[in-house]
């Protein structure tokens, strides 16, 4: 299966831009980590991601696999950032990048710039919490003004996007009331939050009432535009309160979106891969990927993909790299996914569970056909 899967175009339905400046070692290592504190005397290369990065990315920069980190970073610094991006993010066989622009967007390339440098067509997925924060900074008079400004802005942004995204799991966890709040509740919560922002007691949107409002508003827009709402699940940085980020905790909201025929794409899902697969089995609107965690588990990526494929219907699984900042993460996402998928399907063929023709159909579905069916990307 390997050569067939290596030739398949992929749709990366959840990723971010790369940093466009030369990266010295501390900045590079910071982008290899979800933690915020380096450990003195230790390196991010000393973990599974470090192994696969040096194995697979070093040859893209003209080095032998498993080059030393110093040699790798020196070779990287000898090239322009554009050339690094081209050799790594531009060499994935990805045919479309769906880029989440809501996280540190001033530090990374936007979709147009990513498309320019990599030559891969890019489209935008809009993060709803970032839009609420953006309109709060424009100085609405009160909660009602915030709500109206959000409605206008999210409607406008949604028109140019191919999907919306929420990081409710980060901000409140999934363990919140899951019906729409009343407008009076929203306006009161908005006024409270604006006052907290003005007093410096809040930096970002963490109010469950406002996030619930944004989620249902996003659901309506996704229904209108017939595209998915992406939900961050599980693995992420230290803000996550993991036990409450199990996606089955969000079942009432997922069920409400099923009523509206809005696809929900569960991102990352680790360690709740089985829970996410269960939701994909029982809800017609649920899809999932295991992006990011394939990169972070490196040599074990095959086992992680095999776990996702235990139960997930073949028409419900998607590919993503969830690469952020480093072009290496784009390259590795595709490489590890292709290797893992070939390994799982070869095993099924060898066991007599799938014919080669069926295995190829499964690979095509996960690589791009499922994403093409639910996102408006032609
Ligand atoms: Zn992401």
From TrEMBL:
<protein>
    <submittedName>
        <fullName>Amidohydrolase family protein</fullName>
    </submittedName>
</protein>
<dbReference type="Pfam" id="PF04909">
    <property type="entry name" value="Amidohydro_2"/>
</dbReference>
<keyword id="KW-0378">Hydrolase</keyword>
<dbReference type="GO" id="GO:0016787">
    <property type="term" value="F:hydrolase activity"/>
</dbReference>
<feature type="domain" description="Amidohydrolase-related">
    <location>
        <begin position="202"/>
        <end position="377"/>
    </location>
</feature>
<dbReference type="InterPro" id="IPR032466">
    <property type="entry name" value="Metal_Hydrolase"/>
</dbReference>
<dbReference type="InterPro" id="IPR006680">
    <property type="entry name" value="Amidohydro-rel"/>
</dbReference>
